[in-house]
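G., the chain you wanted modeled:
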Amino acid sequence: MSLFQHISTTGYHRVTDEDQRRSLKIVNTLALVTALMAGIFGLGCYFMTWDLQMSAPALIESLLLSAVIVTNRLGKFTTAGLALILINNLSIQYYSAIMGRVTEVHLLFIFLVGLSLLVFEKNRRMRVLSIGLTILAFLVGEINMYNGFITPVVRPEAHSPVQFVIRWVTIPSILILDLMVIYYYVRNMERQRKKEMLQVQEMLQTVKEHNRELEILTAQLAKATDAKTVFVRETSHEIRTPLNAIFGISQLLQLKVEQDRSLAPIRQLADHLYAASYNTREIINNVLEFSRIEAGKIDTPQLETLNVREWLDGIVNMHQYVASVKTVRIRISVADDIPQVISGDKILLSKTLNNLLSNAIKFTAQESTISLDVFRDDNKWCLQVTDQGEGIRADRLSTIFNAFVTERNIFLEGTGLGLHITRHLATLMGGGIKVYSVMGKGTTFTVHLPLEVPAETTCANDSDIDADPCSLTDTSILIIEDDKMSQMILSRFLSELGSRIIVAGDGMEGLLLAKTSRPDIIILDSHIPGLSGKDTLAQIRADELLQHIPVIIASGDAFKENREELLQAGADDYLVKPIEFKALQTTLSKYLRVNAHP
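Predicted structure as tokens:
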């Protein structure tokens, strides 16, 4: 224990800040543990297989991880933290490639993301860089797994004793590393919470002596309560920036493949990249939604007129892209007694159906069919999604809706939050959810909701708004966006549709270009340097020459409060990054069509 304490505190003499010392100790401890694991694994593989291809990289990794501790001793703390993440990323990709599906090496993605948040807790740029590298490495590994560019050395069908030992040595090791990161993260949160509680107690003592201190205490207490939500929001926004580029490029690749038959060989690659990035986006959305639920922020359902069949078609069309990667078809069946138009909260309903379809795609079998049935049950209407997967054991059905509970699958990994959130949303809308499963045949989830039909419907207008996207040829679109990659991706996509693109890097430049070019529509990022997105929007709406131009907000903030704030400030619509091109085209068409036919 004395030796371990000495190694884990290597470099302490160079820093005095307690937070930096804690980060230093985490890096040293995890470097030591992973070095020992890699060394033991390498030696074990060598004596079992005498195969240097399996053992040598692990021993090299062990030496490199030991060098991380030496780097900390020399005072190169940022270099040591980044090296720890890079070494583990490279090791994971190597063993993921040569071991294939024999072991779940990719589960270390949780370890690496959590490690990035711990090591670079106060260094935003390095945190974004390390998380971005981890996501990129994860996507590369997934693409290789599905396309087989590197032939695995260990094949799952071999069922050798060596394979059995390797699998049941690596999986506990992976879980230990994941649990270590979670343990350190929880400890940091508890330490921060205790620190904040101590501050609150000191403030309460001061409040008794002076009334003015009460106001200060209230403000700080509210700030402490929202700290978790702010952390999740900021982290999500930072992750969405590189993810928006990956998601956009995957959609551009798909469009190019459709336009150029010579690119057909990379179609599967483009589809897998799209599916992986789409799943990552859904994970981030679920984490944000779970954060809202944990913070006690309950959305009040906002009833609006909803064309059921057109709404279903729009959502299914987006999910069919991901389903196609597994050669899965989504079949829709709407009972005749379901009204064409109902009253409901479109946003909450869409979140509910998105989670059910995403869950079904993950767990259904290859080359199978997912059934989406909508039917009436007295004064309720039901959304029923059925997959053809392996099913859920009876003893798991009672916990399947709990947070962080998920079944194992090899297609796309999830957080175990989707069904928990779906139950919350169904309850929020006055309904509920049930599950029925048969092992070996599949699982059915049924959401039942109150059926409310509006007294007066405007089917013709709804149909017109939700019609097929109109032509964007010769349409001028102003993009106000500071991120160069986002500028390029949006410009490339819209140019392919025939639009004339004008690009501004900040709010002031955007206003000047808007006045001189008079675009047909404006796409505005909410986070831009100088004049903020909200202030830019306010000036557009105050200008007689510009106030009639539709403005669509494109933002990495997925919280409902941000959406409502900007819509109330005058935005016509709000799209969350990473942007789905089909949704963007439909939104643009809706407002261009309205302007063309006032």
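Residues 457-467 have pLDDT under 50 and may be disordered.

Shout if anything looks off.
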